[in-house]
Design goal:
heterodimer, A: alpha/beta, 5-stranded parallel beta sheet, two-stranded antiparallel ribbon, globular, disordered N terminus, B: elongated
């Protein structure tokens, strides 16, 4: 397990239903040497994170240790939100629910530079956790961050609840004009979610 | 836009053109050897998407029994988002007014806003084409002045 360049290990998952914004964010992130995955919906983001529909509906911590491990891994993914509009009430709610930061679109390189500290912090937490769970493991999980677009109407809204009471983060209220829609938050080893 | 003096209008347009140009420059900074056509790709996607959205909006509003303001709002949100990303602030501004009319189920207001939007879009498309032409000329001039040298 070598010490690869720090940036190469950082992976960002960007969630946005706008093709233009996906292209832009991908370019911004690649220019900053991040590994990037873009998806156009919340459900695809969940799939990517290894979270399947049927898993979401069960109290998985009791049923499947593997999923429980995954869910606790997912717990540390930093989430960043983005929007083309500045709606303080919505933004504050997301931040209160645990989003790290809000970026106003168009997202700039300066914004992308702000991701690193969150990822480093999450990485620090994960190193500790990995040592606890699998001290002999040779794996180095890629650091991931997720970015989420607040406006995307096509983001699927799985209805499952976060079952693990250790989770600091509850479901995020994503309100465009309908504040009753929720999107689960995920933390993972080094995964950062950027969502619009 | 009615009732504004010519000077005020021109000042507004200059300011918003500057914002468009600024974002255009930002996009250019992201263009490099690994992604040489980034700006034109993004702008073309914007044109395609916007034209489709504008068509949808017009179709919705010309429906005899039109009532789906929510759908209209959804199209507008998309246009607002992509216009922001491209730096098309005039379009964004008109969209916001459009959306406000839509939220009030004001069909007349929506129609007026749509017409303004279609105008703005034409204007924007022309400006972006101009920017591209200027950029191409600049690149051509640079290539002529500093021809590629294959010798190490």
């Amino acid at each position: 397990m070598g010490m690869a360049a720090a940036e190469a290990q950082f992976h960002v998952l960007a969630v946005d239903d706008s093709l233009i914004d996906r292209k832009l964010i991908e370019r911004l992130l690649k220019t900053s040497s991040y590994q990037v995955t873009t998806v156009d919906s919340g459900s695809k983001a969940l799939e990517f994170l290894g979270w399947h529909d049927n898993d979401m509906c069960t109290k998985q911590e009791l049923i499947s240790p593997k999923i429980n491990q995954e869910s606790s891994n997912l717990r540390n993914i930093p989430v960043v939100i983005m929007s083309s509009e500045n709606v303080p009430s919505r933004i504050n709610r997301c931040l209160e629910e645990g989003a790290e930061e809000f970026f106003l679109k168009p997202v700039r390189l300066a914004d992308v530079n702000k991701l690193k500290p969150h990822m480093m912090k999450a990485k620090g937490k994960n190193v500790q956790k990995n040592e606890e769970h699998s001290p002999n493991s040779e794996e180095e999980e890629a650091e991931i961050e997720v970015e989420i677009n607040l406006e995307s109407p096509s983001q699927a809204q799985p209805q499952a609840s976060q079952t693990n009471s250790n989770s600091k983060r509850k479901s995020v209220e994503e309100g465009r004009l309908s504040p009753d829609r929720t999107r689960p938050r995920y933390n993972a080893n080094g995964l950062t979610v950027m969502s619009s | 836009m009615l009732g504004l003096s010519v000077e005020r209008l021109r000042a507004d347009m200059n300011r918003l053109l500057a914002m468009l140009f600024h974002q255009f420059l930002q996009l250019q900074q992201l263009q490099d050897e690994s992604s040489p056509n980034f700006v034109s790709e993004v702008v073309n996607i914007y044109f395609n998407e916007s034209e489709k959205l504008l068509r949808n909006l017009r179709e919705l509003l010309t429906e005899k029994e039109f009532s789906d303001y929510r759908k209209m709002g959804s199209h507008l949100n998309q246009l607002i988002g992509s216009s922001s990303s491209i730096g098309a602030h005039r379009i964004r501004t008109v969209c916001l007014a459009f959306r406000a009319a839509s939220d009030l189920n004001n069909r007349t207001g929506c129609l007026r806003a749509l017409e303004a939007l279609e105008c703005e879009y034409c204007y924007l498309k022309n400006k972006l084409h101009e920017l591209f032409q200027i950029e191409q000329q600049r690149m051509l001039a640079a290539a002529v002045r500093y021809p590629q040298n294959n010798n190490p």
